[in-house]
Amino acid sequence: MKFGAIDAGGKRFICGITDENGNTLEKTSFLTETPDKTIPLVLDFFKDKEISALGIGCFGPLDLNPDSETYGFITSSPKKPWRNYNIVGTFKEKLGVPVFLDTNINAGLLGETTWGAAKNVKNAIYLTIGNGIGGAAIVENKLIHGLIHPEMGHIFVNRHPRDKFTGNCPFHGGNCLEGMASGPAIEKRWNLPLEKLSSDHPAWHLEAYYIAHAIVNYILVLSPEKIILGGDVMKYKQLFPIIRKSVINLLNGYLQNKFIFNDIENYIVAPDLGENSGFFGAATLCIKNFKQK
Fold it and tell me: What is the pTM of this model?
């Protein structure tokens, strides 16, 4: 039995075929351009592959309410060509198989809790910081959905007192985490691509300031046992020690727990699966839901 998996991210659609145990049989990727350009390429890849079902982890926001008339739609995405796009309906119609959808960050966390950095915990958070910022949480072994799904990248943050940047979020400007700390926000603020910023550039301390403030809020609300930080920005490893130190300073002795204050290197971590978290999560989403049907 073969299953399809798609990690639909801001830059690429990572597509592949797995067996029922999650072993990858084939994988490729396509640039995330417009639906008219990207979707035909993805459909052509899956055509004639004889998959039993398809799992999709997709950028959002998404309508994940099965009772909604727009279930399976990408809704108010910052990516304007994708707004109100029926991604589930399109793949169901064209491939003729069950399609299971969640956010790409939820899929990423599902991958990490199944095979990766959060494999042995019941409560975890996964934050990706790249072209945008997304977050997911598992509480007592269940992904949080609720009214829609978590939008952790758009929590409102306090501006650093010396930061004059106006922000990069089309919805919230400089008021939200994504507007101040996404990859494009960093590049726009300093007028340099990320790879041109030296490891001791002040950009990294400013970035850690916003991420650490967000993490402390997540810790206080959701009490995670593991926090995973991924995405293109977090590939710059100099951020991790600055973020960890800032989190400890912000908590200021509150929440007396050894995992935070004595072992924070193993509390705030990178994803074990790297860029494959979302792909393996989409496969898991597909396999688990198909078996339950």
Answer: 0.89
